[in-house]
Amino acid sequence: MRFTPTAIPEVLTIEPQVFADERGFFYESFNQREFDQAVGLNLPFVQDNHSHSVRGVLRGLHYQIQQPQGKLVRVVRGAIFDVAVDIRQGSATFGQWVGNVLTEYNHLMSWIPAGFAHGFLVTSESADVLYKTTAYYAPQFECCIAWDDPALAIAWPLAGNSPLLSTKDQSGVLLANALMSAGASRSSSGG
Q: Over the stretch 122-178, which tens digit does the pLDDT of each residue have?
């Protein structure tokens, strides 16, 4: 596997070695030893998720204010534009984002560490996205930043169309407000 830092060095693009011939292909989608060496941390993955969405669905930008999740994201059918936003206060890249095109054909994966908001837009007819997480889903701690926050100015490849959003994602807040809410939640919970 090849691990390549993005413009935000902690977010990695991972390219597996694919063995292909007329019968199809084979590749290792995860290897704990190689991952630990590349990331420099021995992170346990505790949950695997599978998301199926149709063209134009935009999911995110999600994060958990407690029990933050690192995510290893890949696409097994279709294509997405996958985005990570640095929400680590005090980080040199705070408020910046990086995007990756992940498809069933390029086999690329994204490593998004804890401390980042995550979202994706489906750019194919439909897409099946698989991702491993380093912490369990905790709906009581889940937050959503507005996908169209002007301060982030994410260049979603929407081609002039409006995305399909869940009710939760329609209620996303601006990054500045999200961090104020997260601070209040942490102090009121004693964390």
A: 999 999 999 999 999 999 999 999 999 999 999 999 989 999 999 999 999 999 998
Instruction: Name the residue type at position 55.
Output: R
Q: Which residues are registered as beta bridge partners of 130? A: 50, 74
| pTM, two decimal places | 0.90
The verdict on whether 131 is a catalytic residue reads yes
Residue 62 appears among annotated catalytic residues: yes
Number of domains in the chain: 1
Q: What are phi and psi of 129, to 5 degrees?
A: -115, 130
Residue from 62, 63, 107, 118 carrying the catalytic annotation: 62
Whether 80 contacts 59, CB under 8 Å: no
The CATH number of the domain where 162 resides is what?
2.60.120.10
- For the four alpha carbons of 125, 139, 115 and 108, in that order, the dihedral sign comes to negative
Give me the residues paired with residue 165 across strands: none
- Check: CB of residue 97 under 8 Å from CB of residue 156: no
